Amino acid sequence: MPTQSSLYKAPFAPGGPNEIDVQLAERLLSIALAVGGDYADLFFEYRAGGGLLFDEGILKSASRGVTMGLGVRVQKGDSTGYAYVEQFDWDAMKRAAETAAQIATGGGAKAPVALRSLSLPSRYELDKVTLDVPGMDKRKLLERAAAAAHAFDKHIIKVEASLAEEIRELLIVTSDGKMARDTQPLVRFGVRVVAERDQKRQEASSGGGGRTTMGYFEGKSPEWHAREAAEQAIRMLDAVEAPAGTMEVVLAPGDSGILLHEAVGHGLEADFNRKGTSNYAGQIGQLVASDLCTVIDDATLLQSRGSINVDDEGNEPRSSVLIEKGKLVGYMHDRLSANHFKLTPSGNGRRESFACAPMPRMTNTLLLAGEHHPDEIIKTVKRGVFAKKFGGGQVDISNGDFVFSLTESYLVEDGKITAPLKGVNLIGNGPDVLRKVSMLGNDVGVSDGIWTCGKDGQSVPVGVGCPTIKISAITVGGTKV
Q1: CB 372 within 8 A of CB 442
Q2: Is the pTM of this model over 0.85?
Q3: Any idea where the Metalloprotease TldD/E C-terminal domain is (predicted)?
């Protein structure tokens, strides 16, 4: 049975009060193409979401909300017309189609291709979405997390636990004959703690989720996340000033993939390369990384936060190889960039909502595993930094320069992880860092459902992943004089 909610259903779904069938969709597409557009698509979206925040021993907030609408896109050459409405009555939808059509001025009206319903994969088929679970059950999860964090150590002075959830129903109809429906569930759980001792204060967090059910907590309970956050905060109370300078750095598996995502992944999105603004523009076939590195974007991972059955242009995403053994072999494409490069779209056309036009975006971006055991990698480091958890960062897409802060990191001395460090920044260049990858672990991990990617004002859920990575030289911005 496909994923669905018993409480929330799209009005445009079959049997709904504003059902969109083939005939109605074809009428709207004909209007969108009436003044000479080359291509048009319709993006119907219904999103129901909610959130709970437990803080200072009480449920501070609880919310539920619904947004819905239709976005109409018309393309004429490289130009795009876009309009959206928040109603599904005929007059509103017709007006949106006519507005988007104005990008085209003249030329014969192109008839849409007869529609066919796409058969999609089932990468997140769920028996019951979290939005259908009673609120009290979810509140108890937050209370359990708070209690476990406080019980971990007397120096935990503040605990905040949260849960965000949504279900997103989509109908995508294109003038080249595709009609696709998908229901995308999403949940994220988080615990943030503050520890204080001897006038020192540290924050730490842990969280996870994905396109999954409440069964997620059978594997990683609220108590597990609470202990992870509390243990990190207590440990970092003893953190010492970080050294500064160029040194070896080892990145932990999993969430360290956010550095790859930001410093390399965005530069491989094809719109930047179509416009020539990425440092990877014109580099297909060239060595851009160590020959140890193979980078993929993979939307097919089961129930991962970045996985999708269909992209927001009606194309089925696949696992795309971007860098193979150091050589740049491809970009992530939407329809517009694929046409430019005379390729098939890779299923990376994504948008935040019906109010936004799609563009090339990552799904789950991974650096594949190598052959070394993680302990073996650490043993090769004379003096360096072990980066375990990343905070915020800044990246220049045009050249790949980045600065990332670390929320959890350790000194490595004579092949052993020793003192926790504070005030650590990693400063470098994405392509340069990939060229300096000297060892890769056999322990590739995927982030546990926490990352959201921003681009041009739009946010979408993504996954990142990598094995343990040794970088032979990177600039560490520390605070130790």
Answers
A1: yes
A2: yes
A3: 245-478
